């Protein structure tokens, strides 16, 4: 068990996790500005992006880069600096560090080393979008980014779409239409969705409607800017619809030849090994036999 007293006297430095604006610079708190001005070092996801923020608030603190590509080497060095008594502020490009952004690795290492970790709260895109969405705000389930590949994304959506909580996702604009199409495929046309675009900025916009309505909107409009995608929690009827769809998907392969049955499951979102295992189980066949049939491997009779 570990007890942290954030503001007691100590011989080591403090790691501050500082929220930065998600768009509107007026959302920067006085405490955040003071903290960034007083620490020894700012660990930034992108030092060039952070420099723009620092310039606006006339902050001249030294910066260092800490991101997904260098944290394995950099985080231990920062922990050593903290143990030596330096104070460090960690920031992401926007919002809260660690929430679909780099940060959690340094936090975990600092805690393991007995270093105080102090949050400086501020804007978070997911929560900001949720409170204005019109969907049930609690309970909610924050997921962040979905897998990029279609089969993996559909499989993930099938798992998440039966949850009763409001679901919160982040998605890149160029992938948003395909993602909504996948939600329609899994959830049907009537699930309630909300898209929050360019939060806190001049062109902030909320799009509220069904999966079918939002997909139709994308047929005539191009997504621009940063988006938060929110999906209403599954009602009992929604859960039955998705479960029934999964059951139909499984029984659809019963009359197919072995190789085609495996391929159908793969196309529905399963990985090849999972599909082979399921077909072997359903047909009471040896898994290796199904594997050979699917991959057209002939036994070597010498």
TrEMBL record:
Catalytically driven reaction(s): cytidine(1402) in 16S rRNA + S-adenosyl-L-methionine = 2'-O-methylcytidine(1402) in 16S rRNA + S-adenosyl-L-homocysteine + H(+)
Report the sequence similarity comment from the record: Belongs to the methyltransferase superfamily. RsmI family.
Q: What keyword terms does UniProt attach to this protein?
A: Cytoplasm, Methyltransferase, rRNA processing, S-adenosyl-L-methionine, Transferase
Keyword Cytoplasm in the entry? The reply is yes
GO terms for molecular function, please? Answer: rRNA (cytosine-2'-O-)-methyltransferase activity
Compartments it resides in: Cytoplasm
**What SUPFAM superfamilies does the database record attribute to this sequence?**
Tetrapyrrole methylase
Identify the EC number(s): 2.1.1.198
Q: Which residues form the Tetrapyrrole methylase domain?
A: 14-214
Q: What class of enzyme is it?
A: transferase
Which InterPro entries does the record associate with it? Answer: 4pyrrol_Mease, 4pyrrol_Methylase_sf, 4pyrrole_Mease_sub1, 4pyrrole_Mease_sub2, rRNA_ssu_MeTfrase_I, SAM_MeTrfase_RsmI_CS
A GO term from the CC aspect = cytoplasm
- What protein name is recorded for this chain? Ribosomal RNA small subunit methyltransferase I
Q: Quote the CDD domains the UniProt record gives.
A: RsmI
Q: Where does the protein principally reside?
A: cytoplasm
- Per the UniProt record, one Pfam family is TP_methylase
Q: What does this protein do?
A: Catalyzes the 2'-O-methylation of the ribose of cytidine 1402 (C1402) in 16S rRNA.
């Amino acid at each position: 068990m570990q007890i942290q007293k954030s503001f007691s006297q100590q011989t080591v430095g403090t790691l501050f996790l500082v929220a930065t604006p998600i768009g509107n610079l007026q959302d920067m708190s006085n405490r955040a500005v003071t903290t960034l001005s007083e620490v020894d070092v700012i660990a930034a996801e992108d030092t060039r992006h952070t420099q723009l923020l620092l310039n606006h608030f006339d902050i001249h603190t030294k910066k260092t880069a800490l991101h997904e590509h260098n944290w394995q080497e950099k985080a231990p060095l920062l922990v050593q600096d903290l143990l030596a008594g330096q104070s460090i502020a960690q920031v992401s490009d926007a919002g809260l560090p660690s929430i679909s952004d780099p940060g959690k690795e340094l936090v975990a290492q600092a805690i393991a080393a007995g270093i105080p970790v102090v949050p400086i709260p501020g804007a978070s895109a997911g929560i900001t979008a949720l409170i204005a969405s019109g969907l049930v705000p609690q309970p909610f389930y924050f997921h962040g980014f979905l897998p990029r590949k279609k089969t993996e994304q559909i499989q993930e959506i099938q798992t998440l779409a039966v949850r009763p909580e409001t679901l919160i996702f982040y998605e890149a604009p160029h992938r948003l239409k395909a993602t909504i199409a996948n939600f329609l495929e899994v959830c049907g046309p009537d699930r309630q969705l909300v898209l929050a675009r360019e939060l806190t900025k001049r062109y902030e916009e909320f799009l509220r409607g069904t999966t079918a309505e939002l997909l139709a909107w994308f047929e005539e409009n191009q997504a621009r800017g940063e988006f938060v995608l929110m999906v209403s929690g599954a009602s009992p009827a929604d859960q039955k619809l998705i479960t029934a769809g999964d059951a139909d998907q499984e029984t659809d392969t019963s009359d197919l030849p072995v190789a085609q049955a495996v391929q159908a499951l793969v196309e529905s979102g399963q990985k090849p090994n999972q599909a082979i295992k399921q077909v072997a189980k359903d047909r009471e066949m040896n898994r290796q036999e199904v594997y050979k049939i699917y991959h057209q491997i002939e036994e070597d009779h010498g």
